[in-house]
Every structure is written in structure tokens, then in C-alpha cells.
Amino acid sequence: MDQELTDHHVHLQNPLFGGDLGIVFDRSRKNGITRWICCATAPGEWSRIKEIGSQYPEVLTAYGIHPWFVKGMSGDWETWLKILLDDRSGLTSYRPGLGEIGLDFAVRKETFPLQEEIFVKQLAIADERSLPVVIHSVRSVNRILDLIGSYSRIPLFLFHGFCGSGDQITRIIDRNGFFSFSLREIDEKNQKGRAAIQEVPRDRILLESDGPGKIPPRSILGGERNLISQLPLGPDHFLLNEPGMIPRTLQEIARIKKIDEDDLRNQIVINQARFLSSWKTKEV
């Protein structure tokens, strides 16, 4: 079985990664990560993401508006989004998805109605095209699931960085959802994240870096200096969270769930094949 892994949620367009993504990909490949889902947060990133996807065939692109950035949204972003999703140029075997979209009820309350309005519009676009969706959820899982229930043609979706409850996990699985975890969720101080990892069935687990992000706590990195010794420092001299760190997440998830690491890796390879099948073009 092919043992190569996918980073299911990363922001390669972020300037912290620098101008030469080839270096990031080389380090990632050395650690067995050979495919990446690059997620947008706002329309200003969409052109750069398309450029990255065209340059690197192993990068799957996802376009959307993150709930943090809905305020002040102007222009005909819906038309532009539809054009990007329907554009066949530069695509290989994968089509785009919608992401990172969702709801965040930990930010200012006055944004909640606008968050829902923009989220629903993006769900409708995904539904029209039967596209997969990558979801950001903070204190909002139940509301997101209520809204998604109206869109039956979205083939599947991914709750990234998931920290929800057992009941929510059941609801998400019933809607054909997956869950991805990063260094943040395996942090010993993140009790909700670790509890979610214990609850999620192994056949629904995927891996992500959510890079570049903040430096993971030292308690996460532990003695894994051999894994990260070649990773670069950011401009503020913190360690960048790269796709190459994903093996550490895999290792800790196996420990949390008390299963063999190789067995978990084999299962995740199966899981990602199922998940990525919804990204395949009709021609493949």
C-alpha cells in the first residue's frame, strides 16, 4: 500500500512560508507528505492559491471566505468564486474545493449574522457543483450542521482542527464528514482536542498542519529534534509549523488512541483516498 500522506489543511499562500515553496515541499516529502490541500481565507488570496496549484500539481486548491474576514467584504466575490471553481485551466486530476469556510462564535457577536449569510452562500455554490468543503468551526458545530442539512449534493466535508463533542461527531459522520487534526489538537494542554481524537473513529481521521501558524508548544515537540532540526525560523525567530511536522501528529494520535502507529498510518492512507475521491475530476 502507498504510505504517502496528505496535509489536508495548509495555507501555502501565507508570506511566512517565503517565496520558494519548493524548499517547503522538499522538507515535507522527506517526511512522507506528498500532497497538500491549500485553503484560502479571503478573496485577496485566491489568485495566489490558483498560481500555486498551477505550478505544483500535487497541491489541491480550496477557495473561500473564512469567518474572521467577512466584515467589510465588498465586490462581486460570488461571481469571482464561481469563475475560479469552474476554471479548468491548469488542473490535472483534481478539481477545487470550498474552503476554508464556516462559523466562528468566539469572535465579535455583531459579525454572526454576516458570517451565516456568507457561509450559506458558499454552501449553495458548493452544492450547485457537488464540491467538497473544508470547514472552520469554533463554538458553532451544531449550527453549521443545521445549515449544511439543506445541501444534499455536497459530497463530503472536513471539520479541520476539530475539538467537538461525541454527539457532534456522530452528527458529522451521519452527514459523511471527516475530521483532521494538527499539532494544536495533540497538545497536552488541549483537553478538548485530545478528547475529540479519542472519540473520532479511526476510519474518519485525517492529518493537517494548518501551517504556518504559531510555534507548537515545547511539550508537543518533545524530543523530536531530529524531525524538526532542518525547519526554518520565521521572521520573528519562531519555528514555522510546516507540513513536515505531520508525522509527529500521527505519532501522538496513535498514542492517544492506544493503537499501533503503523496500523494508524495504514488506516489514514485509506481514509485520505476516500476523502480525496471527491476532489477527483470526472475525467479521472
Helix/strand layout:
Blueprint: E1 5-10, H1 21-30, E2 33-39, H2 46-55, E3 59-63, H3 77-86, E4 97-104, H4 112-129, E5 133-138, H5 141-148, E6 157-160, H6 166-174, E7 177-181, H7 183-186, H8 191-199, E8 205-207, H9 218-221, H10 225-228, H11 246-257, H12 261-276
Parallel strand pairs: 1-2, 2-3, 3-4, 4-5, 5-6, 6-7, 7-8
**Count of helical segments?**
12
Total DSSP E strands? 8
Helix/strand order: EHEHEHEHEHEHEHHEHHHH
Give the overall shape: globular
Between the first and last Cα atoms, what is the distance in angstroms?
Answer: 20 Å
Strand order of the largest sheet: 1-2-3-4-5-6-7-8
Which stretches are low in confidence, meaning pLDDT under 50 for 5 or more residues running? 223-230
Radius of gyration: 18 Å
- Secondary-structure content class: alpha/beta
